[in-house]
Amino acid sequence: MFLAVLIALSVSFLLILVRLIIGKTTYDRILAANSIGTIIVLAISVHGFYMGRPEFIDISIVYALINFIGTVAVLKLFDKGTLGDK
Amino acid sequence: MINSKSIALFLFLLGFWLLMSGHYTVLITSLGVISCLLCVYLTIKGNFLDNETIPIYFFPRLIQYTIWLIKEIFISNITTAKVILSKSEEPELFSVKATQKTNEGKVTYANSITLTPGTVTTQIKDNVFEVHALTKEFGDDVRGSEMDRMVTWLEKGK
Amino acid sequence: MLDLSIQIISIISFVGGVFFILTGSIGLIRLPDVFSRIHAAGMIDTAGASFIILGMILQSGFSLITAKLVFIGIFIFFTSPITGHVTANLARKKGVIPIGKTKGKTL
Fold first, then answer.
1. B94 part of a folded domain
2. Which CATH code for domain A2-80?
3. B124 within 8 A of B106, measured Cβ to Cβ
4. What pairs with residue B114 in β-bridges?
5. What is the residue-wise DSSP string for A18-33?
6. What is the pLDDT of residues A1-13, one digit of tens each?
7. At what angle do helices A26-50 and A57-80 cross, to 10 degrees?
8. Does C98 touch chain B (CB under 8 A)?
9. Which of A37, B8, B131, C17 is disulfide-compatible with C52, CB 3.0–4.6 A?
10. How do strand B119-125 and strand B92-97 relate by DSSP bridges?
11. Nearest residue on chain B to C65, judged by CA atoms?
12. Which residues from B are below 8 Å from C23, CB to CB?
């Protein structure tokens, strides 16, 4: 059952990767990267259950935090041209 | 200095520590309590502890609002899935007025609009929101302003 | 008996989550412009993530893992609208023209 969920998550990862490559605008690519991040967070947790070691949840919490901070930081970099306050 | 906001912040931080720790010995838990007290002290010293950090007057009606919001999100998820699979999208862009008084209320309303799939807040200026909707029905939902009334009701507290 | 029903509910919720995630990915490819694609990404973040996390909660029983899963769900629930709004706002500010009708006065 967990293996089936993992395969479905991989398929949707590949579908979103198509959008990330053809892109058109930068914002499409950022959006696709954020969605891939969400899917990776879910996939790490499901993989932990599949291997019988649910302690993988800690890694996926850290991944969720970094995914959010990273997306907002990249968007701020495109908006202002710098990450600092200058 | 010790008021309901600082106590609520301390309880949130302590809950987060206990969630992440997993070791419940006396030494480690007391270290956690000390760190949480230090964080609350620094927050008070830095003047960060106001209504925007802990909107405590939201809490009495928060549970009822969350249940209503989850129901709305579920319904519009199904509608969005239908629209995507049946290729019947007709996007539109429009403005609505928000009736909330405070900044926290406006943030809650804008985030609730964006959290519901099918509608996204694109820009905010004073109390006018610019909303992008996937179909005309989603646009009518926002223009009917049921969510606006719910957030205003939440903002009033008890 | 109780175990069996919990297993069945968990499988149903996994199937629902996978359905919403795959539909969201198809929408991310198929929809015409960046503002419409934000709706599909929002669907992955709300319905897909919630249903898969619900399925894992039912599988894990009651322990600290359950609380951590709930925390991940709440965190994704809170951050999804922020990234969506920031992306839409920046695309609008930098002059991406949305496809479709524009009703009334916009900002």
1. yes
2. 1.10.287
3. yes
4. none
5. HHHHH-SSHHHHHHHH
6. 889 999 999 999 9
7. 170
8. yes
9. C17
10. unpaired
11. B19
12. 81, 84-85
